[in-house]
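User: Study the chain.
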Amino acid sequence: MRRPVHLRVSCLVASILLAGCGLASSKDNLDLSKRATTLAAADSVIDRYNRIRSQADAAVDAGLLVDVEGGPLLAVDRGAFYLRQRLAVSTKPVHFGHTRLLVAANFDAYPLWFATVTKTAGTDELVAAVFVRRRSTSPWLLTEAPRLAGSTDVGAVAQQADGSAVTLASETGQWSDGRTPARGFPQRLVDDYAATLTDPDGPEAAAFVKDSFISQMRTLAEAQPVENVTFAQHWSAMPVRHAIRLSDGGALVFATLERTDRYTVKRRRSLSFAGLQAAAYFPTPVTRSATLNYRHQVLMLVPAEGKPLVIGQYGGLVSARGS
């Protein structure tokens, strides 16, 4: 599903997210302490994305996406293009507005990354977009893009003395201001959230708000066919790459969740996916089993006090197999 999670947290402020980007350098090890990112530089990256994405949307050509997307997001959007081709469905072109605010961070080596909040054209949604640059000769690629409702407020970003955002270094597990987060943060937290999605009554569930994403996914699971079919759903979390600390001590965590839906059909029976997205992979009824693989990118708010919750998401069907 590609609908935003609508939560009543008030209005999204521009200070929602971090950024760490700089101008191109001829070296892959560099000192960016004097290379603060400008809004113009970020907007240039967004403009390039919009231009190539527009070409891909017009031609329904997922091959063009590799020039502007990477990581799990590329798999999600490739899956969406496949559905468009096989099912002959049309969708609104993706177009992002210019940066509302960019909070710069410093890097002394590649990869670089920045995150920005922008508006998506033709909707009231916002996108929390993370762009990554692997090396000096590489282009900026959009790797994470959860959508948020326009009424979401997560507070202000924590900053160091030089004005740079306090971000988590995935390589060291340390905050960029030298502080050490709680043991296992944020990966253990996201793993527990995935376990909660698999089993809403499990021991991990008590640690989280029963947010809109959990409710939506549970409703979907409960709506699956049960007559002559055995259905099972499992969730897992991919490695977390990007997180930011908020000024009140809370945090924002970007995460990608993998969801697997498995259907086992009883003997002499069949299962049809007619009218559903899975029909792109199974145009005729399945007589034995089917496995559908989804990826969901989420933005999790971890408050300084209280339980974590997901405040935005973007994802969909990326592959399937069966007979």
Notes: Confidence is low (pLDDT under 50) at residues 1-27, 30-36. The two ends are 24 Å apart (CA to CA). Residues 14-322 form one domain.
